[in-house]
Amino acid sequence: MSKRVLLKLSGEALTLADARGIAPAALKDIAAEIKGALSTKCQLGIVIGGGNIWRGARDGGGMIDRVNADNMGMLATIINAIALQSALEEIKVETRVMTAINVYQLAEPFIKRKAIRHLEKRRVVIFAGGTGNPFFTTDTAAALRASEIKADAILKATQVDGVYDRDPKENARAKLIRKITYGEAIKRGLRFMDTAALALCLENKFRLCVFNLHKKGNIKKAVEGKNIGTVIY
Question: Which among 58, 103, 114, 154 is least buried, having the fewest CB atoms inside 10 angstroms?
Answer without folding.
Answer: 58
